[in-house]
What does this fold into?
Amino acid sequence: MRAVASVLHLDLDAFFAAVEQRDKPSLRGKPVVVGGVGGRGVVSTASYEARRYGVRSAMSTREARARCPHAAFLSGRFHAYRSTSDQVMGVLRSISPLVEPLSLDEAFVDLAAADLAEHPGLADLSLPSVTAFAEELRTRITEVTGGLTASVGIGTSKFIAKVASDLDKPDGLVVVAPGTEQDLLRPMSVTVIPGVGPATAERLRRAGVHTVAELELLSEDELVRLLGKASGHWLFNLARAQDDRPVVAEREAKSVSVEGTYDHDLTDRSLMEHLLTRQAGDVARRLRKSGLSGRTVTIKVRMHDFTTLSRSSTLASPTDTAATIGRLARGLLADLDTSGGVRLLGVGVSGLADWVQEDLFGETAEEDEELPEVEVPHHSRRAWAPGMDVEHTEMGRGWVWGSGRGVVTVRFETAATPAGPVRSYAEDDPELSPWIPPVTDEPE
It folds into this structure.
């Protein structure tokens, strides 16, 4: 823990939904839910208007529709989220060389590593200075992103900064003065501590521990006996606001994976092998695009009863070939009993490296493996997914309002226009096409 409050945590508010509201004027101020739109979809992000009806991240889309049937349910546009995130991370990196992204919408910034001479607003690391600087930063983020807001927390450690950013959402700023950390934490639930999920919270509850103050009363030995050495030591320190983790500028990818959830349980083994092979090809392309390879191939299988299984196999040397990844994935599937039905399949590669070992005794060229011709079942991602960007030769750009029974309905508007008109077309109308964002050659 530092002597000054110099760790900043920034969290963009309801990020995916906020980007959709920014780019779709007709949805501003209205409930928006981003995630899987099918019957088995899961909510990724809900706007604050939707949260008032009890819609939350990780909730099933079915339940979200029941709670807020009048919300706009959108499948999401990763390109828009990525470009907006890049803008925000660029602003943060202009402040300090030590920026640690946690996801597209949040990051830690080490203000102690900033060049104070280049940032007049950050005269020193006193509380008035960092507070004024954070206010300027939030204004700058709103300007750069075209209207998005961010909640910011500043403290003497990553833990305290993260807790602080959650205290006044949305569009808030909380700076925790050095020496006041434990007073802040003690009334809070133990679930405020990273890593305390439902299972750990239940163990602590059985021990009579509900708040951080009650957790603080337990000795380290008691916590180790209750939760194990690693977790016990971790909770003992954080209950006392002791966190010396540095802000790390680069967070290397630990794995590359692809998965799909299907509207109907899969029971045909040939079909599952076909899907795994296709996913293996997607993973291999992503590995090669990033200049990576990996040694460990893992499959993820969620059964009809929501039981999730995973199996892994590790190679002697890293690979980035679809044939190898696919062969291992299908072999792992062969060891599982899937007769009851499968609702989700996924393939991932971990143990990443930036090199590939040449096969000295076999073929290095990737070979396509023959698989039975099968029909892939309807997937929750549709050809005209709700929310996707489209373009019409006469009407210009818009987004998919909905589709079905051979018809696609489009609202024509963008972030730079007022709320626009709604028109319906045949799904195969040659004048309507997906809008693809232009490719920009930006330095890595």
